[in-house]
Design a protein that fits this description.
Elements lengths: L3 E6 L3 E9 L5 E8 L1 H11 L4 E8 L2 H12 L3 E8 L6 E6 L5 E6 L15 H5 L1 E7 L8 H14 L3 E5 L10 H12 L4 E5 H8 L4 H10 L4 E5 L4 E6 L2 E6 L11 H15 L9 H18 L12 H14 L1
Parallel strand pairs: 1-4, 1-8, 2-6, 4-5, 8-9, 9-10, 10-11
Antiparallel strand pairs: 2-3, 6-7, 11-12, 12-13
This protein binds adenosine-5'-diphosphate.
Adenosine-5'-diphosphate binds next to strand 12, helix 8 and helix 9.
């Protein structure tokens, strides 16, 4: 029986972001819940959709806190397991002298990489319309095997499979290991969302339309490349093209891509058409809605706390329509 829109599998971690200096001039870090698949579910539930999470945290304060955040956002957590073998994964976000962000991960190993195939709640996958995953659970064993078992199960059960191959160079041994691992997930995906940089990295092209076409032609139903403030570019059976973004006062782009995916999956899970039969206008409407969610996420700090409600998105889109 289909009981929910999306089940997402992957990393759940604590992101520590710089939050000024103490009186003693030491860096202060703010503790934020993080992990792309969880952010996607938070975006979805905030819009009124339903979702469940599958993943692993350590049996510690951080893990318990993360589980609580998911529950507070209406995300089903019975697929979230905790273990004693490693602590909950932590990531520290640093800013260099030019203001560019870099990550250092406490993940050698972190609990998220220790999800085992037998710990996956396959019943949850059966009960969802869409299975969503990313590439971070493919970096290490046993979570790589657990992810592949889960996605193969989802495929066998005829679920729509959505994949976001996030590229985090420090988490892979080499670029070629990253390309191989990230490509593994691509094999199963019906829907792929990626950045231009990830598209070029995976396809070896440096041309957006031909890279998107190449991915689409490898057997996908919908390829979406997000382009920051410019919006996104898509390729699907009904055609291809750009969908412009929305001009907003951007404060923090964390979580914009995940908000975009959550919004897109919200509508795709409710669509009357199959993905391969959806008209171009409908796909563009859905992507424009996802652009609006991505834009709104950038106007607030953080990822999960920045996800907008359906009412907020609709009134923002109406306001933008009136201005144009
Ligand atoms: P990611 O967060 O995965 O790197 P992007 O930065 O491309 O992905 O953002 C995802 C989506 O969020 C974009 O396609 C766009 O719709 C929206 N978005 C991101 N940054 C901005 C911005 N500065 N202004 C308006 N919309 C944005």
């Amino acid at each position: 029986m289909i009981a929910m829109d999306v089940v997402a599998l992957g990393e759940l971690l604590v992101d520590f972001t710089l939050a000024g200096k103490s009186a003693g001039e030491n860096n202060l870090f703010e503790q934020n819940p993080g992990g792309a698949p969880a952010n996607v579910l938070a975006a979805l539930t905030r819009l009124g959709g339903s979702g469940a999470f599958i993943g692993k945290v350590g049996r510690d304060q951080f893990g318990a806190g993360l589980g609580q955040v998911l529950s507070e956002h209406g995300i089903e957590t019975k697929g979230l397991v905790s273990g004693d073998e490693a602590h909950t994964t932590l990531a520290f976000v640093h800013l260099d002298a030019t203001g560019d962000r870099s990550f250092s991960f406490c993940r050698k190993p972190g609990a998220d990489t220790l999800l085992r195939p037998e710990e996956v709640d396959f019943g949850l996958i059966d009960s969802a319309r869409i299975f969503h995953f990313g590439s971070l659970s493919l970096t290490d064993e046993p979570s790589r095997s657990a992810t592949l078992c889960a996605v193969e199960h989802a495929q066998k059960k005829g679920k729509i499979i959505s994949y976001d191959p996030n590229w985090r160079p420090p988490l892979w041994k080499s670029d070629s290991a990253a390309r191989e691992g990230m490509s593994l997930g691509l094999k199963y995906a019906d829907i792929v969302k990626l950045s231009e940089e990830e598209l070029f990295f995976l396809t070896g092209t440096d041309d957006l339309p031909s890279g998107a076409e190449q991915l689409y032609a490898s057997g996908k139903s919908l390829v979406v490349v997000t382009l920051g403030a410019k919006g996104c570019y898509y390729h699907c059976s009904a055609g291809y093209g750009s969908v412009p973004g929305y001009a907003v006062r951007t404060l923090d782009t964390t979580g914009a891509g995940d908000g975009f995916v959550g919004a897109m999956l919200y509508h795709l899970s409710r669509m009357d058409h199959s993905l391969d039969q959806a008209p171009k206008e409908l796909i563009e409407e859905i992507l424009s809605f996802a652009n609006a969610v991505g834009a709104l996420v950038t106007t607030k700090p953080g990822a999960i706390p920045a996800m907008p409600t359906m009412a907020e998105v609709l009134s923002f889109m109406e306001e933008m329509r009136q201005q144009s």
